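Dear colleague,

Thank you for sharing your sequence with our group. We've completed the structure prediction you requested, and as agreed, I am returning the results in plain text so they can be pasted directly into your records. Please verify that the sequence below matches your submission; if there's any discrepancy, let me know and we will rerun it promptly.
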Amino acid sequence: MNIIILGAGQVGSSLAELLVTDDNDITLVDLDNSHLQRLQDRLDIRTVHGHASHPDILIQAGLETADLLIAATQNDETNICACQIAHILQKSVTKIARVRGTSYLDHPELFDKSLNDNAIPIDVLISPEGLVTNYIMQLINYPGSLQVIDFADGRVRLVAMRAHNGGPLVGKKIAELKHHLPSRLRFRIVAIYRQDEVVMPTGDVTIRVGDEVFFMAEPHDISQIVEEFRREKQKRARNIMIAGGGHIGFNLAKQLENSHQVKIIEHNITRAREIAEVLDRAIIINGDVADKDLLIEENIDEIDLFIAVTNQDEANIISSMLAKKLGVKRVIALVNNQSYLDLIHLNSIDIAISADRITTNNLLHYMRKGDTVKAFTLRRGTAEAMEVIVHGSENSSKIIGKRLIDVDWPQDITIGCIIRDNKVMLAHRDLVIEAEDHVILFLTDRSRTQQISELFSPEQKRGWLR
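Please find the predicted structure tokens below.
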């Protein structure tokens, strides 16, 4: 696929790095020539130095033959303008734009053709702040989870969690788990990571303390399954403190304030007053999120969950570590710098999330070959979960009409479930694949995505399907 990425920031660079290994032709456009040169020295990509919304730069980047344009600069107006110009110059290109400003997002008629015939021609609109807010809300809804990802429009979820000493299922073989759980609970373990080494989840594998377990289940079963991996029942967070009153912190408080006791610490007095006027029940505190005395004064020892979402990585890391030291059981920190993310896994912060990585993941399936509905990288980019639609017939497909056990799957892959007619069917060896099934799978080796594409696409349609 021929892909143009506008903006070589965290999102643009991450996308280029992810996609360059998937047999794509990547062109990256940015104003910072030295940054482009560093990326080109490291990645097999083409770069164009210039303003992302200028017509001559878009043409130089190869717009005429592009399949996909991703406008991911730091400037909303540049992204919107670039998509508008690209539509005029090359109508068939699929256009994705990152837009942050609530002034735009609060007016869907600007982008939705069903509401406005003259809508701005953007095919997919991505809001990083909204994506991060939804991601954190999932972690709050399932206490103890490390990661929660929706598939099939929320009919099934992939959950990652840590197995704790004393948990009822710790020390049991996977094949024995069904004997230790209520019969109504349905789930499938798709991967286990043990000290950063992957363990394929065969029936003979025993779950050990410290294992990071990935499982798939329907939403109504997840909470109880999560509890079975813990040594004690995890209470839902009642008292929540949010560090940072920006878009993410404000939106979290707005969703949580009616069901939780919420406090927000915001250092900017003007912003603190603005959100205080809108929020009904949340308590707004003007101060430094890393001020130990302030945290103690605000009864940090009574807080169940501390969420650091300021626009500074350092403030988020320091305040989270301080909150943990002062007795908070669970902390979540927003951290975008990749070097910081790698270090954080060695300290006391429970969950570190990256807005850029979450944004990248929500764009990834548009770049996957075959009819991929969703793709999400996991384990800091080493693994991937995918939802792929099976097309074709028994005559044109390598997998339709076959039992899962009879398909020649690539190594390092686990089939989680199949969605058929809105029904979730957890994978088992005798389950037969049918046309138009949605198959959700887990790859411990992301280099297998090309093989997956070839398996799922019918012979006459091999390649990228829009």
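Summary note from our side: The longest strand covers residues 187-194.

Kind regards,
the structure core
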